[in-house]
Amino acid sequence: MQNLDLTNWVLAGWLVIVIIRRQLAPRVIRFKANFFILIMLMGIASIGDALTKQQVTITSSQAVIFGCLSLISAVGFALLRAWSYHFWVNDAGLVMRQGNWLTLLWWALSLAGHLAVDQLWTGSSVTLLLYVGVTLGVQRGWVRWLARRTYPAALKANQQLQTERHQRRHSCDD
């Protein structure tokens, strides 16, 4: 159990540092779901490994209660982080976003709260990667929605740029 716990801490810690650094820097708004899905799949695999190989035992009612509370927390903090962003249109006509100290505070509170409950629930951090993937995916979706509401015309340029980059990447693979 200690190896799995250590792996989750190291991987999630590295991910969160990368994510927060990117969220505090000015960035063009994009939405690529592959990244969130990968993190969530890694989290599901970690939970599966803990349940089958690591002697973590929970009842189905405990799983439902913890899962619902964790999901509410992931969504709630994702919305708070998205609302803390500053949005604008740059000189190229692309919608930009940038987090601030409040974004960082919401990350710290959400992760600390989730880790505390996870430790009480399983005595480990087995659900951390799944939590990070879900909360990050919801946050990105909400950021996109907020940007679309404020800059609907300019956000089309973001989508066009993302589509062009995607096509260029795949045309090079052929």
UniProtKB/TrEMBL annotation:
Membrane spanning stretches: 31-51, 63-83, 104-122, 128-147
Keywords on record: Membrane, Transmembrane, Transmembrane helix
Name of the protein: Integral membrane protein
Species of provenance: Lactiplantibacillus dongliensis
Phylogenetic lineage: Bacteria, Bacillati, Bacillota, Bacilli, Lactobacillales
